[in-house]
């Protein structure tokens, strides 16, 4: 095998690994933002329902909150203001939109990843490298980026995922929890 062919195969393998790692990173980011968005939405809905329910309570009794005596209507007013402020913050943070952008990245990367599964035909290694490199660049330029501050943690999670997968493949009866313990044992001994 010539050096040019080997270099082409090495580049294809490097890109395949980066696509796989990016898919994992965006999956983790998608799930994180989806959880945050769902929690925030449910909290805001619950707060709104609670504020509405108390708004229909009769009378304006005096209540004590954190040692301060105040009217119930005042507490409800501030509760409504805080709920409204949290709604505005949710709109600005746009965790749902971030989850959707990372989901789109996962879909594009998964599609690209499929293209790397088939080895190039003998004699077509350089053409396949060029084709995949062009596709790789188009996809990577078109998806949302992974924040630099989270890159190393996401890469670490990806590498652990690969190692756990290897452990599970070598031990078909092992549970995920056992595989995680085995991986931890390997790195602590």
User: Spatial order of the strands in the main sheet?
Assistant: 1-2
For the sheet with most strands, the description reads: 2 strands, antiparallel
- Total DSSP E strands: 2
Q: What's the total helix number?
A: 6
Q: Could you outline the blueprint of secondary structure elements for this entry?
A:
Layout: H1 3-55, E1 62-65, E2 68-71, H2 72-93, H3 95-115, H4 125-142, H5 148-170, H6 176-188
Antiparallel strand pairs: 1-2
Helix pairs in contact: 1-2, 1-3, 1-4, 1-5, 3-4, 5-6
Describe this structure in words.
With 189 residues, the chain is mainly α. Helix content is 79%, strand content 4%. It is built from 6 helices and 2 strands, in the order H-E-E-H-H-H-H-H. A two-stranded antiparallel sheet has the order 1-2. Helix 1 runs antiparallel to helix 2 (72-93), helix 1 (3-55) packs parallel to helix 4 (125-142) and helix 5 packs across helix 6 (176-188). The radius of gyration is 26 Å and the shape is elongated.
Short description:
With 189 residues, the protein is mainly alpha-helical. The radius of gyration is 26 Å and the shape is elongated.
Quick tags:
189 residues; mainly alpha; two-stranded antiparallel ribbon; 6 helices; elongated
